[in-house]
Amino acid sequence: MLGLAGCASAPQRQAQWTDPAIGAQSRFLRGEKVLIACDAFDVALRRTCEDQLRVEVLARGATPVTVPAGTVLLNDRELDGQLLASARTLGAKAVFTMTLTPATSSAGSGVSLGIGGFSFGGGGGGGIGLSVPVGGGGWATGFAANGRVTEVSSSRLVWTATLVAAPSTDLNAQFADLSRSMLDTAQSAGLF
Q: Which of 32, 97, 100, 142 could form a disulfide with 93 if both were Cys (CB 3.0 to 4.6 A apart)?
């Protein structure tokens, strides 16, 4: 039997910057409250992203807190500055935001190839089959994630990174991978 399968790869880091003053402060956010928020064009995507961020921040020894219900956020500017007042009220040391934007896509061909054999009485045979779906395959999207950490006390950006995921039709799994990779990147920069 011959099988053809695609491999998913971990999100790739495209860029990273850390404030030199924070670089010396190992584990800047460990044991601290961190206000988390995601920025995405779709509510379901945003909530899925925030659920994943919550899990990953908690796993690294910080306490994730979320934007209070009823907070009005404007779409014409980054979330970071808009969330500072809420973060102060909640006692958070930093705001951790992740912006998700579609970055890559691929069209699955849907074509499959099969090889088989059979036996009937005293004879046998084999064959190759090709299957092409009517209407073609599906689309898969890979998202870019830009993560940012803003220190609440100084209102300054202290860390940012951009990761890009391979196209996938399973956005829940893709966001889990992006969140885990983003927090791994933040941890390697000394934030957790």
A: 32
